[in-house]
């Protein structure tokens, strides 16, 4: 009977070793599965973070590019307006010069009159011609100013249209 406790002791040891081996295998499997799950979660998190960062960078680049376009449009509008004002100033000066020359011609003609009727006729003709010329030139200057306003505002209007299109895009998507 002395051999029976040794056998039972060996069996118990074998059972404990078996249980320990199975426990160690189960623990290793749990640790391996946990590590795999953690790695997958980290990779997915990094992938999402990368996509988000790329989205932010792309949005920042687009915003910077849009801002550059706005500055270019504003610069072009300002240049057009400046050149246009110079041209309008030249036109206005030319009209003023022509009206002054016409007034000098009339003054010379008035200086050489021999009768009151002749002076009245010259003065009436001068007034009529001056009024017609002034109205004609004022219309030309007004049309030139209107064209200038259209040309100068065109780059800004184009940027506004683009901005509205960009703002509407996310709503449609």
TrEMBL record:
It comes from Falsiroseomonas stagni DSM 19981. Residues 61-160 form the Phasin domain. Pfam families: Phasin_2. This is Phasin family protein.
């Amino acid at each position: 009977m002395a051999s029976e406790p040794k056998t039972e002791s060996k069996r118990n040891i074998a059972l404990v070793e078996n249980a320990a081996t199975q426990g160690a295998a189960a623990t290793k499997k749990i640790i391996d599965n946990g590590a795999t799950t953690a790695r997958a979660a980290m990779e997915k998190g990094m992938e999402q973070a990368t996509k988000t960062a790329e989205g932010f960078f792309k949005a920042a680049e687009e915003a910077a590019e849009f801002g550059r376009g706005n500055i270019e449009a504003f610069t072009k509008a300002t240049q057009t307006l400046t050149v246009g004002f110079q041209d309008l100033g030249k036109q206005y000066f030319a009209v003023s010069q022509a009206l002054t020359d016409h007034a000098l011609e009339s003054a010379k003609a008035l200086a050489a009159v021999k009768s009151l009727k002749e002076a009245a006729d010259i003065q009436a003709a001068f007034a009529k011609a001056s009024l017609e010329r002034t109205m004609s030139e004022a219309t030309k200057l007004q049309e030139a100013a209107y064209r200038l306003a259209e040309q100068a505002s065109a780059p800004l209007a184009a940027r506004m249209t683009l901005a509205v299109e960009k703002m509407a895009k996310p709503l449609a998507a």
